[in-house]
Amino acid sequence: MTTRLAGDGRDTMVTEHSSRKYQLIDAVLATTVGGVTGAAYGGIIGMVMAPLRRAQYARDCSALGAAGFGIKSIMTEIRGKDDLTNHIVSGSGAGLALSFVKQGVKAQPAHALFTAAGFAVLTGTVYKVNETITSRNAREALYTETRAMLSKLGLQKYEKNFKKGHLTDPTLPLLTDRELQEMNIPPGARLLILDHIKRYNKMVNRK
Description:
SAM domain-containing protein
C-alpha cells in the first residue's frame, strides 16, 4: 500500500513538472513568434521609409510582438483563461518593452508608464470590440434558418419579432399560432409561417 502511494506521488510530481515544462515552452514559442511576426510586419510596413527608419520600425514592432505574445501566453497558462485582464497586462508589458527599446535604460518613468497605459487601453479596447462582434455573430447564427424562411416568405420585417421572443432556429418546429401571436405577428403572416414549417417538417420526415 505504501509503495503504491509513493508511486502515485512520484507520478503526480512528474505530471506537474511536465506541465510546467510545456507551459515554459509555450511561452518561449509565443514570444518568438510574436517577435518574428512583429519584425516582419514592421519590415513590410516600413518599406516606404528610409532604410534606417525601416530597421528601427521593425525593431519596435518586434519588441511589441514578443512582449505582447509572451506575456499573454504566460498569463493564459497561469490563470487558465483568456480574458480582458490578460490583454490589458500584455498590452502594458508591450508598452513598457517599446519604451525601453526606443529609449534604452535612460527611459523616463513617466514616458514608460504613459506608453504602458496607452497600450493597455488599446489592447483592452480591441479585445472588447472583438468580443462584442463575436458575441453578436454567435447570436445571429441562431437565426440563420429563421432568416431564410422569412426572406422566402417576404416577411423579413418580422425578424425582430422572432429575436425579441428568442424564437431561435431550434424552436421553429415547436411554434404554434399562440407563440407567434404573442410576438405581435399578424394573422396572415402567422398562417404563412406555420404552413411553411408544416411543409418543411413533412419533407424532412419523408426523407
